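U., I forgot to send this yesterday:
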Amino acid sequence: MASNPLPQGPDSDPATRNSPALLRRELLILGIALACGLLAIPLLIWVVGNRILGPYVHTQDPTAGTGPMRLLADYFGGLAHGSIIFWCVAVGPYILVTLARGLYAFVCSPPAASTSRS
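Result:
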């Protein structure tokens, strides 16, 4: 019979008991958010900019090409050079998800027990 090395008693912390599952969930959320920040958001920026501002043309080198792949190449170049604004776009979805989860936890948390006596 296999034994579970993690404590399961009433005094054990549920966060400690399920820490591998929590870590897996956080890494999954991080991976999805980074995939959105690295691929989906720049492509959505290109779609909106293309519709409103016109085609994306590289002004320094007009022969470099246009379109979403050129924008992605410039985007990853900006990430490689460490530009803050490109990194804000890349990690923005994860920051927004984390803020939304924190706000939800704050709003839905049970009220603290009052220690004052009336």
